[in-house]
Design brief:
204 residues; eight-stranded antiparallel β-barrel; four-stranded antiparallel sheet
Length: 204
């Protein structure tokens, strides 16, 4: 049994070492409008929303729509990594997905949703602003299926560079948003306390 546990721990450490780490993260604050069929327009009554966009050290990108909700239902943090295509040209980044599975975390509803939603998206980042149109957000809530659309527009953004090496992460303490210590980085937001006392937020 000890040998099995040691092997399992070694696999966890190896996975953490090979997992992509955010090297540049931009937080976009803005508003989101949610509709049923066509993409809605942002209005004065649109809800506040936050999108965290990260460039990873393996050349991929990550898009996190934090605490996405509609009709009073808090879906949670919707993370798009797999199937996220990005093109950079003349200072503009265009992000697209086509019906990809996006993990859902940080909500009581995540388990009821099977931990995921299907989503199609097109987002443009230009001159520090993001506009994202999300269509065919397919939600399966305990056997009840629904499709919603959404539009996000940012009004401000903050960019940070994370110069965190894999080796330093392995020797640091990792916590989730509740302050619980984790054995390795999990999907979503990780709070990493470095050996020098510095605290860094890393999205995986």
């Amino acid at each position: 049994m000890k040998r099995f546990l040691l092997s399992a721990m070694a696999l966890v450490v190896a996975f953490a070492a090979n997992a992509a780490t955010a090297v540049e993260t931009t937080t976009f604050q803005g508003k989101i409008a949610v509709g049923a069929e066509t993409i809605p327009e942002i209005g004065d009554d649109s809800d506040a929303a936050t999108v965290v966009f990260s460039k990873m050290d393996d050349g991929t990108y990550q898009f996190v729509l934090q605490q996405f909700s509609f009709s009073g239902l808090v879906i949670g943090d919707v993370t798009i990594t797999k199937g996220l295509n990005a093109e950079e040209k003349d200072g503009t980044i265009v992000l697209t997905t086509d019906n990809v599975e996006a993990p859902v975390t940080n909500s009581d509803m995540a388990a009821m949703l099977g931990g995921k939603v299907l989503i199609t998206m097109k987002a443009t980042i230009k001159e520090g602003k993001m506009v994202a149109e999300l269509s065919n957000i397919h939600v399966n809530l305990l056997g009840t299926e629904m499709d919603v659309t959404a539009k996000f527009e940012s009004s401000s953004s903050t960019t940070g560079i994370n110069s965190v090496s894999t080796a330093s992460v392995q020797t640091s303490r990792i916590y989730d948003l509740s302050g619980r210590e984790l054995p390795a980085m999990q999907k979503g937001l990780n709070i990493v306390k470095m050996a020098n006392g510095e605290t860094v937020k890393i999205i995986k």
